[in-house]
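FAQ: What does the model actually see?

It sees only this:
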Amino acid sequence: MTLTLTESAWDELCQQISPLSPSNQPCDDVEVQGGLEGIGHGYSRSLHLLPGLCLSFYEQESQQDWRLEVAAHDHPIQMTVWLTGSVDFDAVHPTLGDACSYFSGSGISPAYVEKYQSGQRLAYVTVELEPELLASYLADGHYCSDIQKQLFQEQDWKVSFYPAVTPAMRSLAHQLWHAPYQGAVKRMYLQAKVFELLAMHLDAIASDTRAIHPHLKPETVSCLHHARDILTRQLENPPSLSELAQQVGVSERTLQRGFRELFGTTAFQYLQTLRMERAEQLLRSREMRVSEVAHAIGYIHLGHFTQAFKRRFGITPKQCQTGALAR
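And it is asked to produce this:
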């Protein structure tokens, strides 16, 4: 059976666990330790390297399959490199792991579900930056202007990138994990390594945009990201394809072909997947009737919603609401 936790339930579970310090990572005065036991075993460590810059390490192994439901929230600049294992995010992100890293701009994150597998060991390094800190380093305007705009969305939906993990990135992540110093010297060492890893990611993002989509202009890529963001935040009342193309400033043909190339799915399929994932979250919360959930994600006809939900999960909305697992 797959265990489903909300953020509040997960936070409460973590607070009940006594802090622990892993034997191979002695604690010093720049570290904050915290246990992650409960569903399995593991630990986390967080270090505040500069005002607006936090480095965290996570290692855990689950003893059962479980899911974490994360609500929409404000999001900083974030960079994550996995050393072992992978996490599935359904439609909002691809599966992230030791071959695919994660780099997110700031803004508002849509709701998503993290899925963890029993017996899988996860180890990853995460860096979080306040937008103002990164903006101060990009202020000279020499970095790709179109990508810069996507990194700082303020009160709009954030934009995420998924650079391939190179041997150099992996090496830096290991160096961060196994810093050879302590105290103030360790802080200096980690600051340098974090900014080197940041530079690698920013260069990879700019290079990937040019190499993977050579016939998509940077401004077109920006428009397509904008289109995806509009669909994400307007699940209950999305624009038509022609209206969406007009809103973001491209032709309908460019929207159709570019969306598939950039995101690996059609705009309609993307919207449908998001709707179903959101419906599942609402149903499992048991705070709304099935008809209310259908209406909340844009379905007028309850029968159509039931059919679409069953095609996606193999169970009816009512069965989902009473605790049945997807097939």
